[in-house]
Amino acid sequence: NADRTPSAEMAEVKKVFQDIRFDYQHDQITVFNDFLNTSLNEFDLEVQLLQNGQPFYTAMLPGPDIPPQSSAALPLSLPQYEQEGEIILQIRALHRNDQNWANRWGGHAG
Fold first, then answer.
1. CB under 8 Å to 54, separation ≥6 — which residues?
2. Residue-by-residue DSSP string for 35-104
3. 87: Cβ–Cβ under 8 A, 6 or more apart, which residues?
4. Taking Cα atoms as reference points, which of 47, 49, 59 lies closest to residue 82?
């Protein structure tokens, strides 16, 4: 949009073009590195559990050393919680160091 308001189309483009993907099953996450030249040891992983949209657990994990065009399964132990309402597992890859084109938080203040 010309006025820079978020749109559904932009969210879809960001999802389609992301270079790091995650799959969670049975207390482990599989991390897929779709980069062509970048290892994932340049990132940290932020793991968050949200209940009805409100975060109640956050952990930072060092980025795994997964070479480009590879994947790896990593153990992920989550705390016990009451399964009332909507529970969402959110995992974000954050640059460990600021980049010329983006800071650690993707251009937003952390």
1. none
2. -SS--GGGEEEEEEEEETTEEEEEEEEEPP---TTEEEEEE---------S-EEEEEEEEESS--SS--T
3. 49, 50, 51, 81
4. 49
What whole-number distance in Å separates Cα of residue 83 and Cα of residue 61?
A: 24
User: Which single residue is written with the structure tokens 């949200």?
Assistant: 50
Give the pLDDT of the chain (110 residues) as one tens digit per residue.
778 788 888 888 887 888 999 999 989 999 999 999 999 998 999 999 999 999 999 999 998 999 999 999 999 999 988 888 999 999 999 888 877 767 665 555 54
Which residue, 5, 98, 64, is CA-closest to 110? 98
| Global pTM value | 0.78
For the chain, the C-alpha Rg in angstroms (whole number) is 15
